[in-house]
Write a structure and sequence with these properties.
Shape: globular
Distance between the termini: 20 Å
Strand order of the largest sheet: 1-2-3
Number of strands: 6
Helix content: 25-40%
Number of domains: 1
Number of helices: 3
Strand content: 25-35%
Length: about 120
């Protein structure tokens, strides 16, 4: 349901990256027009770089501060600048990130909640 909401909110030319955990692939979904999407597989090295940079920023610069005051909230970090947005829900944080940092790569994390693959 959340995925459908996100796809419906994409504007033409915008894209999102989705993890497919069963087989460790990532998909890039780009809205071409109101009726069509372009879906492509992302190579692991690109995603590995995004994940590595995002984890570095979170662990070194943000973790301590955010876990004291925002545990359980959702954060998306701009991996180029270290700036971030924070929200109560995953949908809200993605929307905020897309508004503030259009066409930028982000690292998604839930504060104080370990990732389970």
């Amino acid at each position: 349901m959340v995925l459908l909401m996100l796809l419906e909110q994409l504007n033409e030319g915008e894209e999102i990256v989705l993890p497919v955990q069963e087989n460790d692939h990532r998909l890039r979904v780009e809205k071409i027009s109101k009726e069509s999407l372009h879906i492509s597989k992302i190579s692991s090295p690109v995603l590995d770089q995004i994940t590595k940079r995002g984890k570095e920023i979170y662990e070194q610069d943000l973790k301590r501060q955010l876990e004291e005051t925002h545990r359980g909230k959702y954060v998306v970090i701009n991996i180029e600048t270290g700036q971030y947005v924070i929200a109560d829900t995953d949908v809200e944080v993605i929307e905020k990130f897309r508004e503030e940092f259009p066409r930028r790569q982000g690292y998604f994390v839930r504060v104080g909640v370990p990732f389970r693959a």
